[in-house]
Amino acid sequence: MDRLARELATIQLDGAPGLAGVLPELRAYLELDSVLALQVDERATGWGVAQLDSDGLPNASRFHAALTTALARAPRRFWCFDPVAPESDQRDRAVDTREVVGDAAYRSSPVVRDVLAPLRLDDHRELRALVCDGGTLLAWVGGFHDGPLHATHRDRLAAILPALRRRFAADRALRTAATTTAALAAALEHHTGAAIVVGPRGELAHANRAARARLDTERDATVATLTDARADVERVPLRAAGLPPHTLVLFRSGDDEQAAAARCERAASRWQLTARQREVLALLVRGRANASIAAELGVGERAVELHVTAILDRASVNSRASLVALVLGALVV
After folding, report:
1. What is the three-class DSSP state of 160?
2. Does residue 111 carry a pLDDT above 90?
3. What is the 8-class DSSP label of residue 178?
4. pTM, whole model, 2 decimals?
5. Radius of gyration for the chain, computed over Cα atoms and rounded to the nearest angstrom
């Protein structure tokens, strides 16, 4: 297993994605007749095959074609699990699918009915694991065996699951990196104010055009704002596996401030807030903590807490985040 785990940890950047190169060894290790690794994606017209690798599968090309056709018209639970949010008792577990869902449910699932049965695989035992990252499905990995499944089969698949999870998580990160980077850049350019991504040592990892202009004309003041925890900016922690923590710092532009103030005023009038509650709401929407609001208004924190509670009641929401979203709507701040 150690050799197989090492192979799973090795990604060939100039090679094809997926597990095609390691599946023969995985099949020998699991002692199954055939193995496959399947990744699906949700599409506007159903489900699609994002990646499918197999070894020892009879009529592999026919299997791929039949699965593609079946998924395009399949319901959400197409193979006895929810691909959007796999059931907790099926995540990261090596199981005999029939033992988990029952023989009747197994045979009535679209994949078994429309794909496995025509290929005479529906009478084989199916060992599989839903490899997940938290509640997100990364891949279906397992295989078929023309004979009984034993504890050894399940134990071996369970033992290799951590290596499979790391591999699929890395594949996903590489596959989506370019799209994620482009989406972040586009979103930050859409933000009308300056936006800067700050690294753990204070390095400026990314800045949109508004931020570049600000750095060119007001560099000292901008840098001072980045390092001042009391500054009136929004700080969003960025977390990604394998990377040190970064922070997205959003500066509000004058247009954003005016739009936010106008929306606060409309919300305050609709909810019939008192003059003090209007002041608290305006500062709360700007991201101020209770202590900061209390200091600016010259009142105690307990008084601010009471005002915030009253505003949440008037707005019929149960959190500050929900309140801000309700007030600002689609406004980017």
Report:
1. helix
2. yes
3. H
4. 0.61
5. 27
